[in-house]
Design a protein that fits this description.
alpha/beta; CBS-domain; three-stranded mixed beta sheet; about 30% helix
Length: about 160
């Protein structure tokens, strides 16, 4: 997150044309979704299956509980004495997220994330459906030329 803050708050990026572009023009849509009551084993399998680093945690299509990061599961796996597969997804949900419409600009999303208001941003379409999870790594990838495409068939509920 420190690199993210340095690049976007202190760098020349804040004045680039990228900052004015709509986020929907920069990233493909597609999201992995999982129930808060699912096991961490099931969650990890789904993240691996869809080659995703994070999943949206929902109890219903209308309720967003937070974001589950693959790195959180892997960290728990490395913790001596823990039995991570007896845990439910709910135990690792990160609720530090922002919701933004797909019409928000790259700059608007970066500003909120750089100030520490959210660890990730869930982008929703005009009907309020989640279509993308943005993290600092994905936003930084635009500067380095790495693109994170997620084909529509990877949308999973």
């Amino acid at each position: 997150m420190e690199t993210f803050k340095k690049v976007f708050l202190n760098g020349n990026v804040r004045h680039s044309s990228l900052m004015k572009r709509k986020i929907s023009d920069l990233f493909d849509t597609g999201i992995v979704s999982i129930s808060a009551d699912a096991s961490l084993h099931d969650a990890l399998e789904k993240l691996i299956e869809f080659d995703a680093q994070e999943a949206l945690v929902q109890d219903s299509p209308d309720t967003i509980e937070g974001v589950l990061y693959k790195s959180s599961i892997l960290k728990l796996l490395d913790t001596p004495g823990s039995d991570p597969f007896n845990f439910k997804v709910r135990s690792l949900v990160d609720r530090r997220m922002c919701l933004e419409p797909d019409t928000a600009t790259f700059g608007e999303i970066v500003s909120r994330m750089a100030l520490g208001l959210c660890r990730s941003t869930v982008v929703v379409d005009r009907l309020g459906r989640p279509v993308q999870i943005l993290t600092p790594a994905k936003l930084l990838s635009l500067l380095g030329g790495t693109h994170y495409p997620v084909p529509a068939e990877k949308a999973y509920s």
